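Researcher: Good morning. I'm working through a list of sequences from a screen, and I'd like to move beyond sequence-only analysis. For each chain I'm collecting a predicted structure so we can compare shapes side by side. This is the next one on the list. No need for commentary yet; just the structure.
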Amino acid sequence: MDMYKNNQKIVLIFLFVLLDYLAIVAAEQSAVFLRNFFFNATNLHISWLNFWVVFPVLYMVFFNMRQLYSRRMPFYKEVEQIFHSCLYGTAALVFVLYVAQIAERTSRLFVLLFAVLVFLFIAILRYATKKYLIKKQLLQIPVLIIGAGKTAELLAQAISSDVGMGYKIVGLLEDNKVQHGILDRYPVLGGFADAEKVIAQTGVKRVFIAAPGLRDEALGLLIYRIQPLVENIGVIPNFVGIPTGGLEIESLFNEKLVVLRLKNNLARPFNRMLKTVFDYTLTIIGTIAISPILVFIAVWIYKDSPGPVIFKHIRIGKDGKPFPCYKFRSMCVDAKEKLAELLANDPAAREEWERDFKLKNDPRITKSGAFLRKTSLDELPQIFNVLKGEMSLVGPRPIIQEELERYGEYVGDYLMVKPGITGMWQVSGRSDIEYHERVLLDSWYVRNWSVWIDIVMLFKTFAVVAMRKGAY
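Model: Good morning. Structure tokens for this chain:
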């Protein structure tokens, strides 16, 4: 069994080394082709040694340093490591070009295109490969989860939904009754006392302890018992909702203590500046790209329901400042009067409005508006709120004045940042989740912000919009 697992690990390392090499070579070839296409007067030539050996090795050295061949991690974290590796690899490539005194003969456009394409090709190829391996149940690392409560359920959800993890859950250990939900997919192999026996029977080398209710003494004893039998133990602490985005761990070995340092990322001026630059860069490029779509939608709305194309609704922004939030008009022009009449005559609608500030079957919505809402295209004009500095691409959901009190103790988190066109709420079910959960999602985002979370949220938004999940 151990020899099989070692061979599996070697095969997986070899597979990704090979795929990364092929992706780098493909990026080189594509960059050369594009450069020559734009400047067909002079063809760029790269020596075979640099093309096939030096350039690929430069990047792959940094991939290895970032543990991209030896460590399993969530895919968004893997993309972050790929980005940093490509950044350092490109810097090393430029250094080599100058040291070898061939920089003047190497196109700057080629270097720029190569750097961008390497990142894209590596990320896409790794994602597709890992997705395929999961689908075919190939080269997955077997893991055992100790615990079967809410924390274990969240862990199982993360393992099953993230292509970067590459784990296969063989079963659970739990002394109490297993809760319904995702954990029903996996067998209960015994209780906590059976840990050694189950590890020996299954041959697992990785264990996750997801039982935050265990007393410190019991947890320490459990780890002491199973650590000699496995290669890795992951302990999931009860940190749900705590801002761990900038978490650092420091060990005081003499005192046998662990210090957890929690950073407030958005309290740092550089990070706030980085978020602003990120917003403006993507928004300017995006606005130019989708301008024909904006014009088409505006004409459609006017023909479907004559009146103003853009609807302005006052929302609460950073530091409590109100601002006009732009949307394509999706309701009839006398929507305010119709809402007052509906709430006065329909108790069920009034209860739904007071609970969510939205109506699932809203009679005020026009034909064009129904489509725009279902696809979230009605929110496209908010890009102009971003350009005006009133909103971010990613952030808490923009709310009205009456909703502030429902944020309670979390209202400070909301007021700390600009609201976003998209965010945690939009990619987590949108109108299908309870209001209190929305508040917690907004708070989690603010306290755990990073530019990589913003990138992940944007990609997830495209997926959610495509599936039209929870939008009305």
